[in-house]
Amino acid sequence: MSSKINKRRQTFKYVLWDWFASFVSWILFFCYRKKIENPDVFNDISVIYNDENFWFGIAFIPIAWLFLFLLSGSYSKVYFRSRVRELGQTILVTLIGTVVLFFAMILDDHITNYKTYYTLFVMLYMLQFTLTYLGRLVITTITAKRVHRGELGLNTLIIGSNGNACAIYEEIAGQKFSAGNIIVGFVNVFDKDVYKVEKYIPRLGSYKDMADVIKKYDIKEAIIAIERSETETIEKILMMLENTDVTVKIIPLMHEFVFGAVKQEGIWHASLIQITPEPMPVWQQVAKRMFDVIASVMVIVLLSPVYIFTAIMVKRSSPGPIFYKQERIGQHGKPFNMLKFRSMYVNAEDMGPQLSTDDDPRITKWGKFMRKVRLDEIPQFFTVLGGKMSIVGYRPERQYYIDQIVQKAPHYRMLLRVKPGITSWGEVKFGYASTVDEMVERLKYDILYIENMNLAVDTKILIYTALIVIQGRGK
Q1: If you compute the radius of gyration of the chain from its CA atoms, what whole number of angstroms results?
Q2: CA neighbor of 138 nearest in space, from 65, 86, 91, 93
Q3: At what angle are helices 455-471 and 282-302 packed, to 10 degrees?
Q4: Residue 20: C-alpha distances to residues 12, 27, 74, 134, 167 (Å)
């Protein structure tokens, strides 16, 4: 009987071993280093543990290694890892880390023979690489065997109900070695009296119910196995899957109908093509989050007088609270509360949700100034710290308006793959949208950003945003 994968526990195994390997390799390397300096060092072991560099290394170097492995994406996919790919990644990342560590802590040694430096470098690298990879190899091999025996797997949903769905189910079920899929059921595209694949797995509903099915059954992978007569729904299916964290795979017959990045799955398993789910490499995602946290802390600290002054002015501008909290829809369609300095009079939306326009009478005089220089947005840096937003992303909307946008532009759901932002390419190029049609028009810029996400583009957007603030061209 297969059991569901526990990603946190598996990640902890890799993290714990990497820490232990770094801890041990530093101790062994330090002893070897002291042995070169003084061949009789082990006659008086206190020479080692009285050295403050020894204890500094024990405390901080394993943490530094974990941080480097995190940046490299070592902990992003802890199941279904390729041992060959893991070998190459460990060789490269360990080499980079060893170079940094060597220059930071070892080149200040008083050694007259440069050959000793090379020896130390090789020793440090070999110790770190060997200990790190051996542990990873053991964990990965044990996990792979459990997956192949069918003891571990990901809850998988088949989208489709007829010949193609039956074929892919039979191929997965008939594998000598399991690929790690626990097929819990299927959803159909068109309603019929009889579904061929129902003889193998239960029907969980229509594809229109996928969001509820994914949540209810904790689905981690979805396989699109529809018929050619159903391909007109492929775009709708993909859009519905965009705002989930489900890995999407398709049968080869369908790849000609899918636009975007795809890659072939492992040659030993079922013939499936995976639609690349990540808009940014893992190391860039980590770097982006680090920038968000560091920049937000700096802004909050440096602009604390501005926060206080703005709060006072909001309070004096009109009766009511200083802050305005509103529910918006974020990554994977999850709602969150976005915080702003209040720029409108209280009860501005008594008649229901309304978008602001030029010369909107609901906006206070101070509110108009805040909007021009984006002061009303600065409380959102606290939301960024909380992880619900990023500094650069797309502007989040209320569900009320998303429902209207999706009717005209279903591809809006593509935005929900990533976190919304305080600023966006749509805001820079188009500006504020005062109608749903303008929101749809602005959408093309945000889609362009999602399809080209990288740190360089984020930097460009931040520069343009700064110019807008300085020139007071906000709205």
Answers
A1: 28
A2: 86
A3: 30
A4: 12, 11, 16, 12, 46
Bigger pLDDT: 159 or 46?
159
Per-domain residue ranges for the chain? Answer: 3-148, 153-275, 282-471
More confident residue, 354 or 338: 338
Please, how many CA atoms are within 13 Å of residue 244, restricted to the half-sphere of its CB?
Answer: 19
Q: What is the pLDDT of residue 36?
A: 78
- Side-chain-side CA neighbours of 195 within 13 Å: the count stands at 25
CB count within 10 Å of CB 146 equals 18
Residues 6+ away with beta carbon under 8 Å from 357: 434
pLDDT, residue 20, reads 96
The two three-digit tokens of residue 466, written as one number: 């700064």
- Per-position b or e across 368-395, b if 16+ CB within 10 A of its CB: ebbbbbbbbbbbbbebbeeebbbbbbbb
- pLDDT of 412-463, one tens digit each? 877 888 899 999 999 888 887 878 888 888 988 898 888 788 888 899 999 9
Task: Measure the CA–CA gap between 169 and 201, rounded to whole angstroms.
Answer: 9
Residue 220's nearest CA partner among 239, 242, 186, 247 is 247
Name residue 66's amino acid: L
When pLDDT is cut at 50, 70 and 90, the band that residue 35 belongs to is confident
What's the distance, Cα to Cα, between the start and end of the chain in Å? 59
Strand partners, 264: 273
Please name the fold of domain 153-275. Rossmann fold (3.40.50)
- Which residues are paired to 262 by β-bridges? 275
As a whole number, the mean pLDDT across the chain is 84
CA-nearest of 175, 174, 277 to 221 is 277
